Amino acid sequence: MSEALRASQHYGYETPSNIPYNYAAFKAKRDANIAGLNRGYETNWEREGITLVRGAARFIAAKTIAVELVNGSGVETFKAEHICIATGGKPIVPKIPGAQFGITSDEFFGLEELPKKIAIVGAGYIAVEMAGMLNALGGIEVHMFIRGDKILRKFDPMISETMTRTYEEAGIVIHRGYKNFARVEMFSGKKTAEEKVLNLRWDGDDGKGFIVNEVLWAVGRSPDTEDLDLGVAGVLTDEKGHVRVDGFQNTNVEGVYALGDVTAQLQLTPVAIAAGRQLSNRLFGPTKFSQSALSYNLVPSVVFAHPEVGTIGLTEPQALEKYGAGNLKIYHTKFAAMFYDFFPAEEKKHLPTEFKIICEGEEERIVGLHLIGLGVSEMLQGFAVAVKMGARKRDFDACVAIHPTSAEEIVTMK
């Protein structure tokens, strides 16, 4: 919305530049909306005859769990032929003195006010989404501390390079070569946005440190398995605590399954939902679903950054390793979206739209599609269907372009 308000000035609207933002009002509406969604889920479960038990569960046998009820009424025991572990993941907090003075993406949603100056530690999608959102609001000094020289390093180089440059041009300060803070000192424990003052210290900082109002840890997530007593049931995990599963979501214990972020598979909400559907079909559906399993190949994903990022399939380095340079054809385009036509030239050049198609073999089968720009989150879903079905470059070429759109560039790349 902040970006739209600023853009409106280029379209003839006399929009003031200093429109105040009432974060408290927004937070109240957001919290009410989330509460409504939760009530909706609970209503649906009740209608379907599903019993919701609130508490902390742990295995006491291979097919038995004990739940310490949150209402304090004691422990309830459940036995079942089928048990599915879907406890998800949790943010990782560095094990340094004072780390608890910062927040994670979980606690961010509890903030009553936004900080005036924030340090975001991490370079992945959560860090990038948070940094982009806070910077777009305006009036917030955003600093990112990253280990390497680019953000979104696991994405295609086009994405990591363009997004790093774009974020810096937008005013986000990126501190490269982050080696871990040694400690976090709290100068002021008051929790208002301006009165909370933290000093981030590191070895060799000459006693100065880095002063902020908030630090957000976005250094990764770990599976939420520590308190489940999986060993009692004999369920195996990997070295990071992820539950080991096969392609059908089976653990090594018959009748015990796992899906979602608690496994080492793709950590996306729609992936967990889809895996759950396939598992329930296989366990409780007709025989035609006896081999139902989710394909983790070619899953589209989006980073709701500023601008948005959409991707499906292999990155260029992954494709080179798998197929070899001689078997690849890369298509790439970069342009300014028409929405920005009325923007000043200097401003427009900092608002990129950039697409890449990665093709393999003589048939030029599309094995990777990477998008940056306004609205690519909506564009990707339809193109992902085509890529999932094995589309070739000539299939895209044969599609008549919709003009004027940014998406037409995907089917007209040369």
From TrEMBL:
Keywords associated with the record: Cytoplasm, Disulfide bond, FAD, Flavoprotein, NADP, Oxidoreductase, Redox-active center
Cofactors: FAD
Keyword Flavoprotein set for record: yes
Keyword Flavoprotein: yes
A matching Pfam family: Pyr_redox_2
Domain FAD/NAD(P)-binding, residue spans: 19-276
Signal peptide feature range: none
Chief location: cytoplasm
A GO molecular function held by the record: flavin adenine dinucleotide binding
GO CC annotations, alphabetized: cytosol; mitochondrion
InterPro entries registered for this protein in UniProt: FAD/NAD-bd_sf (IPR036188), FAD/NAD-binding_dom (IPR023753), FAD/NAD-linked_Rdtase_dimer_sf (IPR016156), GSHR/TRXR-like (IPR046952), Pyr_nucl-diS_OxRdtase_dimer (IPR004099)
Subcellular location: Cytoplasm
GO annotation (BP), single: glutathione metabolic process
Residue ranges of domain Pyridine nucleotide-disulphide oxidoreductase dimerisation in the record: 299-413
PANTHER family, per the entry: GLUTATHIONE REDUCTASE
Family: Belongs to the class-I pyridine nucleotide-disulfide oxidoreductase family.
Designated name of the protein: Glutathione-disulfide reductase
Lineage, broadest ranks: Eukaryota, Fungi, Dikarya, Ascomycota, Pezizomycotina
